[in-house]
Amino acid sequence: MSSTDPAPARTQTPGEVLLSATGLQKSFGSNMVLRSIDLTVCRGEVVALVGPSGSGKTTVLRSLNGLEVPDGGTVAFAGGPSVNFGGTVSGRELSALRDHSAMVFQQYNLFPHRTVLENVIEGPVQVQRRRRAEAVQDAEKLLDRVGLLEKKDQYPFELSGGQQQRVGIVRALALRPDLLLFDEPTSALDPELVGEVLKVIKDLAEEDWTMVIVTHELAFAREVADEVVFMDGGVVVERGHPDQVLRNPEHERTRRFVQRLL
Ligand code: ADP
């Protein structure tokens, strides 16, 4: 990221562990969705979470920032909150987790009655209590970076899906999180709009943002991820370098999955 960019990740020491999740468990009724998930993410690292539909990927992602409350396990940020889901978890602990990461949703989740600019500054101004003028300045720089400054006064419905998702990404960046979480960011898009969103994410990866990305785009995962984690049935079946997991998997379940999608 250049020195003129407004929203660098708050701390930039590549290599050290930023996020550590251990033993995450979650059931919805009798459906045990996460059986004991461990995940470690280092600063500047891109982790792609892949696997069949229903394997628990989104639930892991949402657990990392307290949108979902696991039944057990821990989520800890270096120098930040450490939440043990085995006991009672306070709203304060959940919001501390949220303070360290920002989510980009599959369906963009923009406020429909607010302009692009208002969508982007909502979190910085209302939640982080930053000065409005400063938030606007940051937002405009970020929008410019993804080629959407001229759309700042338009409403989400006036934008294409790809443009809306780029606003979704800018909205997450504007929070200056340590960690960016992407939940199938391109799966709601028409095929011709996927590339523009993947390009933005790829640029962020090159700028050493720390990211966990749930995706079905295996070719993309192979290109940008430092580590691929393959989940099936609520467990991590296999993890490792993208070339190993996606091209030469050890496990039969992984092999079947990648053969279908690559
Ligand atoms: P993936 O992201 O791999 O497709 P999810 O984490 O979305 O998997 O879902 C895993 C399982 O948990 C699915 O069977 C899904 O139906 C179930 N599930 C997810 N969220 C809820 C919920 N809020 N209530 C009940 N079941 C849920």
From TrEMBL:
Keywords from the named record: ATP-binding, Cell membrane, Membrane, Nucleotide-binding, Transport
Main location: membrane
An MF annotation (GO) of this entry: ATP hydrolysis activity
Gene Ontology cellular component annotations, sorted alphabetically: plasma membrane
Listed InterPro entries: AAA+_ATPase, ABC_ATPase_HisP-typ, ABC_transporter-like_ATP-bd, ABC_transporter-like_CS, MetN_ABC_transporter-like, P-loop_NTPase
PROSITE patterns in the cross-refs: ABC_TRANSPORTER_1 (PS00211), ABC_TRANSPORTER_2 (PS50893)
Protein name: Amino acid ABC transporter ATP-binding protein
Organism the protein comes from: Arthrobacter crusticola
